[in-house]
Amino acid sequence: MVYEDFELLATDVQEVKEEGMKRILFQVRVPRSPCGEAIQGLPCEYDARQMRECLKDWERRALDWPAVIELGTWLGALLFPEPVRELLVRSLDLVRAQERGLRLRLLLEGALHNVPWEYVLLNRGGGEAATTDFLALLPNVSIVRHQAATLPAWGVEAALPARLVMALAGPSGYAALDLDEEQRLIVRALEKTPHIEATFIPEATAETLLPEGPAHLFHFAGHGDFERRMGAQPGTVEGEGMIVLEDGYGDPAPLSAGQLALRLRQAGVRVAVLGACRSGRRDDVNVWSSVAAALLKAELGAVVGMQHTIRDDSAIAFSGAFYRTLVAGLPIDEAVTNGRIAVAQLDAQDWGVPVLYLRARDGVVFPEYTADPDLEAAREELVVRAKQRIKELHGKAVTIKIGKMTQGRVEGKQEIEVVAEGGEATVLEIDELGGGSATAKQKVDKVDKGGSVTGVKVDLLG
Length: 462
What we know:
alpha/beta; 3-stranded antiparallel β-sheet
């Protein structure tokens, strides 16, 4: 899928304390979108205590679908003031008509990095919001963080099979992690992916972190930390994130984000996945955000970090869909979206835990795989296409009907001259969408009174 960028800047963050309340003020701008720009800063704010209470339930895993919908509605009201909302709606309509995707690029400052914007919801139709209103669960929408930049030519060729290195570390002094189970989950997730060769590094140290030879993908399971120091502005925190390895004797041996970045770049790594752990968030510092920034600066194409812990079944579902899509040569946006939708059938909350930090402008970090004819079959397994042309519709027409969809991609087109009275036109009808992605294009010249047209109908998400 080809994506158009919708760049949203949330900057000029200020803390205002008054009458027992701490308000977080910021400005929102849209310097670029498929339908124009909004360069005049639009004021937004939220109550820090309200956000803290909201995230407390989120971190305690106390949210069901209604609670997550309530959270998403609130986040949408914060991030999309008018005319940003209008630009977003128009952009979504435009890219859908062009059979493209929309990449919502979030460029954030300060405390805004720790807000789970991946749960943002856009209720376009009014009335009661539904799970299908979450932007991150729309098949043609991607939510990414950080600035895009042109990538240099890769120094290490990416040939099949792709080499995944998974480093695991659980030093003393930190919360115990079931790393054997973590490794088992990845092995299970990759069982149906013959184009990936995985190497596991248990009790990883600085010396054993990366084996000899190239590595295309790096997956870390363990703890992160943050070295704090006071910032130049009063009340701000600066520092550097790190991953916590072992020293060969089971004790912690932190490796700074900068050092990790240098090693991964030298090995030829293009995508890093940073596993979740309970020390991943502390105070107002998102550790993985700091590490991801360093890795992107070192010219990795993309980093996937976890905002919080994630259930085992969810981790399996996400990893399997993510790696299968990525190694088929498709954009990492599609890989993350497919992973999210696969998780949404299992858990109301886990689908929003992954965060995509993207540097590659078009989202394609393995162009060699895209051009590899050996992967054509794998891509075709992920895509089903159908087109329907009707001159005059009196009954019911459905281009593609699916009972339960758990993976792959479906693209439907429908062209109708007249939908007569009693006619019902639907491009995609899915009983249960539990994974993969679906896009629809519908062109109807005339709809008589009593006729109806629907692009995508999903009875049950997950």
